[in-house]
From TrEMBL:
<feature type="compositionally biased region" description="Basic and acidic residues">
    <location>
        <begin position="8"/>
        <end position="30"/>
    </location>
</feature>
<comment type="similarity">
    <text>Belongs to the SMIM12 family.</text>
</comment>
<keyword id="KW-0472">Membrane</keyword>
<keyword id="KW-0812">Transmembrane</keyword>
<dbReference type="Pfam" id="PF15990">
    <property type="entry name" value="UPF0767"/>
</dbReference>
<feature type="transmembrane region" description="Helical">
    <location>
        <begin position="46"/>
        <end position="69"/>
    </location>
</feature>
<keyword id="KW-1133">Transmembrane helix</keyword>
<protein>
    <recommendedName>
        <fullName>Small integral membrane protein 12</fullName>
    </recommendedName>
</protein>
<dbReference type="InterPro" id="IPR031933">
    <property type="entry name" value="UPF0767"/>
</dbReference>
<feature type="region of interest" description="Disordered">
    <location>
        <begin position="1"/>
        <end position="30"/>
    </location>
</feature>
<dbReference type="GO" id="GO:0016020">
    <property type="term" value="C:membrane"/>
</dbReference>
Amino acid sequence: MCQKNKKSARETEVSSAAHEDSLQWSSARDRSATMWPVLWTAMRTYAPYVTFPVALVVGAVGYHLEWFIRGTPNPQLKEEKSILELREDRKLNELAGQDGTNVTSLKDRLEFTPKAALEKNRPVKS
């Protein structure tokens, strides 16, 4: 019977220790359960103050990581001229050999106003 009492005393100690652990865990769970709403309220209230530094750090890390992965930049190659620049150069070269004072009259050029539109309501000369 003495051994039975020893076992029961040992079991009682183990069960009481387990009970204390479960109480600690349950109180920790209760504290965390009450802490989450407080944390979310604080995050919602101070979101602009929290978001900017986080975004700044993430952007800086990403920038430096990308620079590290790419390595040192190669020397810049000579930029090619755009199509418009090539066209302007070609036009200037064509005009370089011509006389700039020898131009056609605006009256002779039909690009601006067609004669048919202006003479539509005029009587036909016979």
